[in-house]
Amino acid sequence: MKKLLLLFFISLFSASLFATVKVASLFSDGMVLQRNTRNAVWGWATPGALVTITWQNKTYTATTDNMGSWMLYLDATPAGGPYTLTITEKNQIQINDILVGEVWICSGQSNMEWRMNMLNHKYDTDIASSSNSHIRHIKIKNTTSIVPLKEVTTSGWKSASPENTPEFSAVAYFFARELYSKLKVPIGLISSNWGGTVAQAWTSIEGLERFANYQTEYTNWKTQISGNAMEMEKQYAAYQAELASKDKGSKKWMLPSLATTDWKTMSMPNNWEHTELDTIDGIVWLRKEVTLSKADIGKAAILHLGTIDDEDITYVNGIQVGATEGYNSERNYTIKEKLLKPGKNVIAIRVLDTYGGGGLWGEAKKLVLETGGKQISLAGDWQYKVSEEYKNLPRNPRIDMNSPNHPALLFNGMIAPLIPYGIKGVIWYQGESNADRAYEYQTLFPTMITDWRNRWKLGEFPFLFVQLANFMKVSSEPSESDWAELREAQVKTLSLPVTGMACIIDIGEAEDIHPKNKLDVGKRLAFNARKIAYGEDVVHSGPLYFSQNIEGDKIRLTFTNIGTGLLAKGPELRGFAIAGEDRKFVWAQARIDGNQIVVWSDKVTKPVAVRYGWANNPEGCNLYNVEEFPASPFRTDEWKGITADR
């Protein structure tokens, strides 16, 4: 691993040490610069070289250091464009179609990563009408590193359009669309996110100084990966052999001659969570027959399968044509000449689903066989058969080795290279992966925010985040909840200045950790931005608990952020529980009294505490303000929670 790191840095700086001027990949055609601020521009060239930039009829210069790095700052520019920026040393780079407006980092885990084309066609109409050259998006490739990197790999800046918008982060797009409708200035979205990741991975190791456990984990992980690379590959080979031995179909279910009369049928693309396989994690084989003519064959073909959750090995006529790990990676496999034949051809896919979803779940238009100069749709009925459940399979040794969930790895790989690009602020959607240690998140999350602000050196820029949605089974009785404790940690983070929270306790889905309603998430974040980042006089949040007063057998609650008044969506308030000194909560009645809530239960004559929406998936939370922002779940007690000692 040490040798690999050395090679990486040699390759990173080889262009700068021995070639002509380069610029960081963030700076490319179609980019958006932050308005009304000095914008940093940086790159590499020969050590000691003089780099000249022309921008807005003004010339700027910088001299590279002994490593060949250079950086300079452009004068603040109001919103506008398109403009051109020219960089000159021995060669010349011209960056065109630059807009100046508002730039936001869009980070977190999968609910921020979730693209417009990953939502079961819910937003097809929005995509079709999305053309707007003033909304632009750049995706940062998933990257981990044990040291802060200087450069990232990107997809390039893309303008919103029916062709490009499907690949945009859905939350980020709807956030930008709402902001643009009010500000009428260009909006730039830097999408740097990774599904299933923890906050400590997005924080620098220096920022985690107070967390001894993460310092130790980071040190141990560095030692592990530097010393055990060859051993890990041996373990992985053994794992693959054991996995094949437990896979009932590993030697024959890909064969064209296989009898499949006992196989079932389902439509693809599809997410298994919404089919009869909703409880299955493990190995499932899929098969589809395709009939081809002589005109369809004779040349290399391409099999497009879209995205597959989580891993696949794909065969055509019994021969392996590809294999990929990663639920969000597009599968495009080349089929060698002569492998296809006239008549029946069999595509067989061994899918390994390790958690949640499963299956071919991308867009139908991407599920095609490209051959003979035409595209043959593979959407529709596929045969399937369950081979083995995940609980009976060996654990992939690469899961821990390749996991992004080690301290500082994502900060180093996906945030550090963005600094000090000019930004307005950050929108953040994460927390699910830290829910089992929610008490720690009370400190960890503010630490991460402060760390980013310290490193960007832009002051207390706006940091807006999404509170966890309702998810999992509904509890019939009041109970403890790590997700509720995580939401509480998110509320407490609002004590940091210039922060805002979008509560979405009303738009989650019990059976899907990726709720489809990203429109309201983006809009609620945008209302936070309008209030906190742009100073508009708008209601931006739902009611937040402030205090309680015990009045005999009832408890009276007061709130902040009530807007123009409290509102119950329904004939009566729901979601409240109340407890006495025995700390046993029971469902309670509640009513609005002016700008306060009165809570009681005939079962509790001497109440001491109230909870609202305190569950993984609280049912019927219907307290809002008149502006229809939902109240955040809360508790009035400070009793020890279930994650306090984790």
UniProtKB/TrEMBL annotation:
SUPFAM superfamilies, alphabetized: Galactose-binding domain-like (SSF49785), SGNH hydrolase (SSF52266)
Keyword Transit peptide: no
UniProt keyword terms in alphabetical order: Hydrolase, Signal
Range of residues in the leader sequence: 1-19
Domain (Sialate O-acetylesterase): residue spans on this chain: 102-207, 422-526
Keyword Transmembrane on entry: no
InterPro entries from the UniProt entry: Galactose-bd-like_sf, Ig-like_fold, SASA, SGNH_hydro_sf, SIAE
PANTHER family given in the database record: SIALATE O-ACETYLESTERASE
Protein known as: Sialate O-acetylesterase
Species of the source: Xanthocytophaga flava
